[in-house]
Amino acid sequence: MSAADPPASTTPPDTERSPPSDFIREQVRADLADGTNTAIVTRFPPEPNGYLHLGHALSICLNFSVAQEFAGQCNLRFDDTNPVKEEQEFIEAIQRDVNWLGFSWSGEPKYASDNFQQLYDWAEYLINVGSAYIDDLSAEEIRQYRGTLTEPGKLSPYRGRPTKESLDLFRRMKAGEFPDGARVLRAKIDMASGNLNLRDPILYRILRATHPRTGDDWCLYPTYDFAHGQCDAIEGVTHSLCTLEFADHRPLYDWMLDALPVPAVPRQYEFAKLSISHTVLSKRRLTRLVAESHVKGWDDPRMATLSGMRRRGVPAAALRDFIARLSVSKNEGKVEMAMLEHVIRETLNQTAERRMAVLRPLKVVITNYPEGETDWLEAINNPNDPDAGNHKLPFSRELWVERDDFMEDPPKKFFRLGPGREVRLRYAFFITCNEVIKNADGEVTELHCTYDPLTRGGDASDGRKVKGTIHWVSVEHARTAEIRLYTPLYNRADPGADGDFVDDINPDSLEVLSGCKLEPSLDQVPAGTAIQFERTGYFVTDPDGTPDALVYNRTVALRDSWAKAKAKG
Fold it and tell me: Could you tell me the pTM of the whole model?
């Protein structure tokens, strides 16, 4: 292993980890042991109104992993009850993301819209048994009548509407006789309840919008609270796993199941959602970033979306490993971004092949090397994987090196190139800088060096040592590329903590370098393959690139930069 490679991970691979244990898995074990359930069914139920983000990865891994561990099944269900915000694009993107993360759902994807007729019939059932009524109050009036956390709500003047009249109005709502917002269907529960969700919640509203799957068949749509639990019951879900913000909705979830003749009775359990520093995990905020062009789409590599992370080159295995290291609990807390990057770096260190790339090139001419000749050297693909083999690396008279690897007046502890200084070229030879060429503005444009042919492979036959090793690329054989360097999208750990989160956007979150020089063996590396550019970081090709105009994204730097940033802060 060279100085260019970070230490190998000491963390055992996923297959060697101890079986996970948390309060949800303990509940599942207990339910199987006492016969409450004979088989386990979970579900991942996103609303298709945006792309999945890193917070969803926790729910995906939990729901699918629990089903796998207990020989059950996990459904993918789209809770598509709001056609105003839902699109087919999001449905397709969600399926791609779940598959990319490494999971497969049971059977075909399911949709709340598959159950629209059944949900409507159950709504009529509630009206007939006196548990629901049509309310003519406006949305603002309903809010006013609802009360507050310290004051009970007031009964709607329409709460006592006769069952026959409510049923007739509900059917006319379905037939499209009334404008949007004119009437709603509300459950008749308890306007004095300490839980605001039980204060006669809205079950159906009139909404004229074309649905991605049902088109214009319906102008009446169930609310999430009405559809979610009933769809769980229809699918035979045993454990409905939700984040903590749904804990206050659980009494309503249970009330619906008790009030209706559902085929099964699932149980809801809540866990703390994922929160990570220097990012936002809110679909509403992510939507705003896209809508206001603060980023270049949902898959912008700076986004915390799964598609953005995939485009940036984050391995799905690293995300699964990251989630596995988190505790599933009811205690909310924030995870440092440094932890996620550490896991990504660990994964890539084991799997990514090494190549050399010069991001800010400075030409070096080896004056004592024959013109027109090329020496093909052996370079290791991955020092952590002997089976990965080697690749050929061309060496010629003219080379590119990093501009930062040269200083005309270097300080004492600078061990790279300087006038009269000798360094090692990775896999190649020792070279000594003899002459510095400058342009009319005094800018260094070229270095003239000599090489020692007896140091081929990077070792001197006379035993002399050099402290500096730098990377390089042959000018004649180099491929030119654009390289995009990403840093956190936000300048602070808690974006928006004391204002608009957009004000905390880092204006320097993307640096684009053109004219970067890459070794030619990258032509044989398939697009999308993770690569370590030695001494620089981990990279992956971007879809914007072509074979003739390569574009690379930096996934993560080689070393943790967060500790240094904290020290400065």
Answer: 0.91
